[in-house]
Amino acid sequence: MIDTLTFLNETQFWPIIIGTGVLGCFFIWKEWHHFATTRFWIKMILISVALLALSMIALQPALMVKKKTKSAILLTKDFKTERLDSLKIAHKKIKRLTYEPNVSIFESDTAIDSVFVLGQGIESHDLWQLKTKTVFYLGDALPSGIIKYTYNNKSREGEELLFKGMYNRPIKEHRLILEEPGGMRLDSLKLDDLERQAFQLTAPLKASGKYIYKLIEEDTEGQLISQNPIPVEVKKREVLKIVLINEFPTFESKYLKNYLAEKGHEVVVRSQLTKERFKYEYFNTKKRNIGRFTKSNLKAYDILIIDANALKNIGESSRKALENAVSEDGLGVLIQASTSFSRYTGGLVRFDFIQDGKTNAALQNASKTKIGKHPYSFKPQFTLGTLLQDNTNNVLAAYKRKGIGRVGITVLTTTYELILKGQTKQYQELWSRIIEDLSKRKNTQISWETTTNLATKDYPFLFKLRTLKEEIPDVKIDENYRVALRNSIDLPKVWKGITYSIDSGWHTLKVEQDSSDTFNYYVQDTLSWKTKIAYDKIEENKRLYNNANPKNESVYSLEPINLLWFFSLFLISIGLLWLLPKLLD
Fold it and tell me: Rounded CA gap, 140 and 160, in Å?
């Protein structure tokens, strides 16, 4: 019982106790001449009771009392009646509520303090309504269909659309088909009888523009089961200015320069023939010699590709100019490693390696594609960015930042053998990824960020806007409707916004101060990707209310003791003290 007693004025405990003690000592001194008489002890008892009652009135005692809770069952989409019946048996007379998005859940009964949620769960924008409640989420099994997917919704022409996903409880012999906007079927696969099946589909992206591909599911008789959009924005491939430096000509450099030239890039190749003699080659550009590196002659390029031996042999002045070009101008550098490079610590940035003894690797997403490499691999580091991995997630090419530029290195040795084996597509994808990730970035004043590839009609779409300018950005959508923004004191140049699109299709966000930098996104209707949306909702509810097997724990509340009891005790004690002399005389 003592553990459940507390005082509302606990901060004043000692001043009140000390004051009561001093007052008690005064009364003892006052009545001391009656010591050893019955009157003295009776008065002391009555005074003690009166002082105790006064101190309790001042401290305001309270007890922890078991609270009578009121529960409810909240029914959401696709709830199971069997689970509802079980709960109704276990909790007699429990209230039953039906959830509707964007509608108040507890408007009719705010006294409910615990909720059992059945079905898929609550929409993310309505979760605030359960913030003050004890919630037990009893979600059912995940629905059958595609629950996860990933793809690059902003690509460049000439690249490949790689759509990867996870199908939950697939039906055997059903077929997934990737269809282009014109209706041509580009790739397909059959589903197996598994609990979950990972899959991937591919399609070439030939021209720039905004396209809507489709992922179609058909049964064994070719009947349509589902059809979902895959929006892709394809941008024109940028023409890069590339300089390729070799200590001596190699097959690796030969095929690389041919690939870059075929893609329309401006390429200058310098190969060393003897100590003082160099061979220059030019593709899609005018002639220009590159002797020693200077900041001015490097400024014209987007990326420098140089082998490790050539890098070690450049002079000190060239090294400093190269470092400045990377850190200040954003020049990208790709180092082609050598056998002894794992022990080389000089240069632009330091890369640490570990010996693994492997001289070949299988590319990620292409386990049958073998490629030559040096017998060492990258040592994991926090500052290491990944450019390319093998099928076991070992890094084959990586980069580190230096200023506003990037310095990368690859441990691959004979990528040209992919072309000799007829695997030109894999070769192009490999080098396209490395070159574009390392090349000089444009110094944009505005950058956009979102957490999803797709927005949904009538649902909130969140975005972030980062700007280098001091002025407040004026963001508008489509037909010049202004979007309200907010930021924080800690990140004054990062702005957050929310839109609610009422029409499906492509939409555009733009900044009024710089209308050239726009952000395109696609809004799907509420019937698209239903299984994926349900899966995301279930997972979010699980993360917030991870207690599928609730315990019957008692809930307690703090209730003050009625002060009238102490006041009455005080009056009785004072009254008896007043009557005592009359009774004893």
Answer: 38
Q: Strand 360-363 to strand 366-372: parallel, antiparallel, or no bridges (unpaired)?
A: antiparallel
How far is residue 516 from each of residues 3, 43, 445, 512, measured CA to CA in Å?
A: 68, 93, 11, 9
Distance from C-alpha of 378 to C-alpha of 381, rounded to nearest angstrom: 9
- Contact (CB, 8 A) for 373 and 359: yes
| 532 neighbors 168 (Cβ within 8 angstroms) | no
Confidence of residue 213 (pLDDT cuts 50, 70, 90): very high
Instruction: Tell which phi-psi region holds residue 539, choosing left (phi > 0), alpha (psi between -120 and 50) or beta.
Output: alpha
Q: 29-63: per-residue pLDDT in tens? A: 887 877 777 778 888 888 888 888 888 888 888 88
In the chain, helix, strand, coil percent, each to 5? 25, 35, 35
Distances (CA, A) of 351 to 306, 312, 410: 16, 14, 11
Q: How far is CA 263 from CA 238, 280, 283, 344, 368, in A?
A: 10, 20, 11, 33, 26
Domains of the chain from N-terminus onward: 2-66+559-584 (no CATH), 145-236 (2.60.40.10), 241-438 (3.40.50.880), 446-524 (2.60.40.1930)
Cα separation, 472 vs 244, whole angstroms: 43
Mean pLDDT on 556-565: 79
Ranges of H-type helices in 330-423 = 417-420
pLDDT in tens, 522-539: 999 988 999 998 898 888
Per-residue pLDDT tens over the stretch 467-483: 877 778 888 887 678 88
- Token pair for residue 172? 């055997």
For residue 39 the two structure tokens come to 């009157």
Could you report the per-residue pLDDT of 290-345, keeping only the tens digit for each?
778 888 888 889 999 998 888 888 888 888 888 888 888 889 999 888 776 655 54
Residue 517: is its pLDDT beyond 80?
no
Q: How far apart are CA 348 and CA 341, in angstroms?
A: 13
Asked if 275 and 302 count as a contact pair (C-beta separation under 8 A), the reply is no
- Number of Cβ atoms within 10 Å of the Cβ of 396: 23
- Tokens describing residue 571: 């009056």
* Structural contact between residues 418 and 424, judged by C-beta atoms closer than 8 angstroms: yes
Gyration radius from the chain CA atoms:
38
Tens digits of per-residue pLDDT, 426-456? Answer: 888 888 888 888 888 876 677 888 878 788 8
Mean pLDDT of 200-218: 92
